[in-house]
Amino acid sequence: MTRDEDDERCGAICYPIVKPLLRYAALCQGKDATINDLKDNIREKDVYIAQLKSKIELTNSMEIQLKDKETILHLKAIEIVKMEKDIGDREAEIHEKKDQISKMELQIQSRETLMQSKDKLIRELENQVNSLKRTQGKLVDISEASSCLPFTDATDILTIGLPGIGPFLVPCNSSVSGSGWTVIQRRVNANENFNRTWIDYKLGFGDLRENFFLGLEKIHLMTLSQPHELNPSKSGRRAQGR
Question: Which residues are in the Fibrinogen C-terminal domain (predicted)?
Answer without folding.
Answer: 139-242
